[in-house]
Amino acid sequence: MRPLPKSIVSWVELALIAVVVSACATGGDPLTSRTEYDTLVPGWESKFTLDWKVEPEKDGTSRLYGRIYSHYGQHASPFRVLGMALDQGGKVVGQRIAWVPGGVPGFTQVYFEIDHLATAASYKVTVWDYTLIEARDTLP
């Protein structure tokens, strides 16, 4: 079998590079075409439930506070929650991530709060991320 001429190989390489670059392109202004994420751990709802309320702060911002309920047997730490301020159309106009000190032990409930969130028409709170701590096996 004869090898391909060098010019054909160069064109194939160039075409491959063009495909890769176009696949990576964002297709718009990066400041106006952001993707909004509400968690780094899809499926967190199968392990945790959130119950929360909103309270105005003296500085004109809002504070979200409530409880995280664990329906899972392992300790989750570190653990962070995301509070989002939403406009009338449901678009995110402000957000903050807050640590849950000590994490969330299995089958318990813990308190959390997110301070200094923008005042908005509505709010949403999700689990941003967590790490499950595996129990160590101990030998006698």
Q: State the CATH topology of one domain.
A: Immunoglobulin-like
Q: Give me the number of helical elements.
A: 1
**Number of DSSP strand runs:** 6
Output the strand order for the largest sheet: 1-2-5
Q: State the helical fraction.
A: 10-25%
**Which CATH C-level class of one domain is it?**
Mainly Beta
Mean pLDDT: 82
C-alpha Rg (nearest Å): 23 Å
User: What is the level-2 CATH architecture name of one domain?
Assistant: Sandwich
Provide key terms for this protein.
140 residues, mainly beta, Immunoglobulin-like, three-stranded antiparallel β-sheet, 14% helix, 41% strand, globular
What's the helix and strand layout?
Elements: H1 6-24, E1 48-56, E2 62-70, E3 76-86, E4 92-99, E5 109-117, E6 122-132
Antiparallel strand pairs: 1-2, 2-5, 3-4, 3-6
Q: What do these coordinates show?
A:
This protein has a domain at 44-132: Immunoglobulin-like. It contains one helix and six strands. It has one helix spanning 6-24, and strands at residues 48-56, 62-70, 76-86, 92-99, 109-117, 122-132. The strands form two sheets. Strands 1-2-5 form a three-stranded antiparallel sheet, with no helix packed on it. Strands 4-3-6 form a three-stranded antiparallel sheet, with no helix packed on it. Strand 1 and strand 2 form a beta hairpin. The longest helix has 19 residues, at 6-24. Mean pLDDT is 82; it is low at 14-35.
